[in-house]
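User: My collaborator sent over this chain with a note saying "see what the structure looks like." That's all I know about it. Can you take a look?
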Amino acid sequence: MEPTNERIQSQSLGYCLSYPVRRRIRRGQLLASQYPRVAFTLIELLVVIAVIGLLLALLLPAVQRVREAANRMRCLNNLKQLGIALHNHHSQLDRFPEAMIIRTGFTDDWSVQARLLPYMEQDNLHKRINFNLPYSDPFHWPVTEVKIPFFLCPSDAKQVIYQASSGQRYFPLSYGANLGVWFVYDPVTAQRGDGVFSHSYGTPIAEILDGTSNTVAFAEVKAWTPYVRDSGNPNTPNQPPPADIAATLLYVSGSLASNGHTEWVDGRVHQTAVTFALPPNTRVPFTDPSGNALDVDWNSRREHHSQTSPTYAIITARSYHVGGVNVLLVDGSTRQVRNSISLHAWRALGSRAGGEVVHPQDLQ
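Assistant: Without extra context I'll predict from the sequence alone. Here is the result:
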């Protein structure tokens, strides 16, 4: 006799049940409604999902903190590698690299970062550069779009290529070279700023009179920072830095561009440098023509865009790390400088020979 569907179902169910239960089923002592359940109810599933969601909510912030701590350490390591390259350059040439070289008919000159390539295991890329040609020359188009990992903080949120109207493509960066507190360059007198790096001049370490452990070489900046440019104010040399933040912000006017810190090859201050007019992560408000509130950088005149107007700049150190910005000091050490540092102490870290005294507690 062939087994019925009921018998097959009973036999299949029997393999999932204990022996006493199977005996009672065979004897007809259990009704179908009394069979033990072998699956979760909807309420039980919802409870499990809720518990898993609660555990994820508790664990996710911890995971994010661990990831951010790892990114901060990688960022400090990038700066450390820049420091090693900087000192290797100095050991070989007895000077630090120029911020850019100002020369007639040569508007697009190379950055500190580009000049450090052979000291950062990027010698092959460095050999593809003809420093007697501007970086905008079509010969260099394959170079400018290359991503240099040491130039990028892993927490920087906008690591995307910038394409100029010419079609040339550039990769951004996250570390700016110290060009001083406020004044950058005067094309009439060739006077240079008070930072570590200067236009058309390679600073020897002997000129870091404030001490290599009291002077910043590189500080974090944010890729794709919008900047306001070419207001022409101030338009005369030897203007002192504004006394406070409010006075500094009075200068922020001019035309708006969206591509600050997007060209690691460009030696101009708004692309590959930083100044110390304002403390780290200070918001510099500016409203664009559409009414959007922006946090911007500023320069009075782009270098090499005038033969008579000096360049002053507010290029603020900014970071995605909580609490402050990572910096490389000239002695090769790295650290985080808190947002709460005083304006006086921060500007002291930005000048190479200002004679200021930086106390250890200023950096806490």
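A starting point for your reply to your collaborator: Residues 5-16 have pLDDT under 50 and may be disordered.
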